[in-house]
Amino acid sequence: MTYYGYEDLAINQGRAIIEEAKKxxxxxxxxxxxxxxxLEIGDVAIWVGVVSAHRYPAFDACRWxxxxxxxxxxxxxQEYYQDDSSKWLSNNG
Length: 93
Description:
With 93 residues, the protein is of the alpha+beta class.
């Protein structure tokens, strides 16, 4: 599969998502990375890390960040199938 996106827009929206997570949850830091380009099945496409004094706010923030990225960041993927066909999906596809 191949991921496509508008990098500058995605970075700006990603920063806003992280800042909103800091307001919503008791966390001190967070980072998220969404890979763009060709990936193999099983490769990590999105990575989220959260720092908090307690695990439950970190878990909640991580889930919220991931769900919000998938809903709001302009990323699309093109999946390729064994019959040589392909299909475009939105990030939340």
